[in-house]
Amino acid sequence: MRKIGIIGGGAAGMIAAIAAAEEGHEVHLYEKNEKLGKKIYITGKGRCNVTNACQPEDFFGNVVTNGKFLYSSFYGFTNQDMMDFLEQEGCRLKTERGQRVFPESDKSSDVIRALAHSLEKRGVSVHLRHTVEDVWIEEGKCKGLCFPGNRKEAFDRIIVATGGLSYPTTGSTGDGYRFAKEAGHKVTECFPALVPFETAESVVKDLQGLALKNVEVKVLKGKKVLYQDFGEMLFTHFGVSGPVLLSASSYVAKMLKKGPLELSIDLKPALTREQLDGRILRDFEGSLNKQYKNSLGGLFPSKLIPVMVERSGIDPDKKVNEVTRQERQQLVEAIKNFRLTLTNLRGYHEAIITQGGVSVKEVDPATMESRLVTGLYFAGEVLDLDAVTGGFNLQVAWSTGWAAGKGAGE
After folding, report:
1. What digits encode the pLDDT tens for the residues 35-89?
2. Pairwise CA distance, residues 41 & 409, whole Å
3. What tens digit of pLDDT does each residue of 178-222 get?
4. Are residues 177 and 29 part of one domain?
5. What is the CATH number of the domain that holds 233?
6. Same domain assignment for residues 177 and 256
7. Same domain, 40 and 97
8. pLDDT digits (tens, 9 = 90+) for 381-406
9. Which of 346, 368, 391 is the last residue of a domain?
10. CB 106 within 8 A of CB 6
11. Is the pLDDT reported for residue 170 higher than 80?
12. How confident is the model at residue 160 (pLDDT cuts 50, 70, 90)?
């Protein structure tokens, strides 16, 4: 029997503890907060998007950074395995749009309760309000943990599952990066990811709170398209957010650091320019004697109308029957290419995850053991792994955590 210490009581840490305890080892889980899974509580707007039920090949297509590193751990503990695990622990699940998986109750607390019950059942010793100050390493071998008051405790294996830098109020303050660096590991540059954008244009304040479904967005550097996708977005008082733009942030963070980028929004992607012009003509035919500014109710939500009137460059008081073909083309262009300038990302306090972390080149993908220090393992967000929204990042935590727990128990 081995004595295994795990730092961090989040998704990766809890599943690692369960996996290690299943092998019959003495497992100690240290969490500096007053409860386990504090970040899980707020995921999916408090509903906890536990995983995504897509096919394996689709899963890897949604991983942004170092997807190949995940092959071994994912196939060792798949999205289906995680769903089966929670169901067996009494947490009923449901699958929604985009194959997103949630607890049937819509309560993240049910997921944490299932995990906590599993820990208890397997005899894991959970130490809440326990801060780990350092990992005790001698001559390239992990010896144990260092606690406040110069106290050391010996362990055979240590798993670092401390999370990243996002949502620091949940305890994610980058401790694991420090542990890794002190152990000789490279930590790649970190960025807030799955995070809203700030824009140069003040027009977003006029649109604050407006959510748009079924739009297509492109992020451009000059003529080069850095990111393109279709989905839902939201205007905020500082810029833009919503699922399609949160995902975009993970792909363009590094480029945005070098300077502003352009955002092009197609408000009507299902229609070609010709079809859209025909649609506008039909709307205009029913409003011939109305002023232009009062004729767009069928095309846009009311909050968007004055903005589109201004962007089209057409006199708002002009009668609809006087709008020229060229002016209609200006409106079509404004709809198909609604431009904003992206200037910055919001900070870690709003970021769902951290991009960057412990270099995966220095970690065994099958066991999550350090290639530099014997007996030291890493799991979850502390690693340089990240994915788009939709349950993929939590599955990264489950898969790498399970691999670390099993690896440490071998």
Report:
1. 999 989 888 888 999 999 999 999 999 999 999 999 999 999 999 999 999 999 9
2. 28
3. 999 999 999 999 999 999 999 999 999 999 999 999 999 999 999
4. yes
5. 1.10.8.50
6. no
7. yes
8. 999 999 999 999 999 999 999 999 99
9. 346
10. no
11. no
12. very high
Q: Alpha-carbon distance 326 to 405, whole Å?
A: 65
Alpha-carbon Rg for the chain in angstroms: 25
Range of the domain at 139: 3-192+349-409
Indicate the number of domains in the chain: 2
Report the mean per-residue pLDDT for the chain.
95
Share of the chain above pLDDT 90, in %: 91
Q: Spell out the residues 6+ positions from residue 46 whose beta carbon is closer than 8 angstroms to its own.
A: 107, 108
Round to whole Å and give the CA distance between 59 and 229.
Answer: 17
Average pLDDT of span 349-362:
94
273-285 and 325-336 helices cross at what angle (nearest 10)? 120
340 and 361 housed in the same domain:
no
Q: Do both 271 and 176 map to the same domain?
A: no
- Position 45 scores a pLDDT of 82
Same domain for 301 and 262: yes
Supply the pLDDT for residue 44.
82
**Which residues is 151 bridged to in the sheet?**
147
Average pLDDT for residues 345-364, to the nearest whole number? 94
C-alpha 143/C-alpha 141 separation (Å) is 6
Same domain as 336, residue 388: no
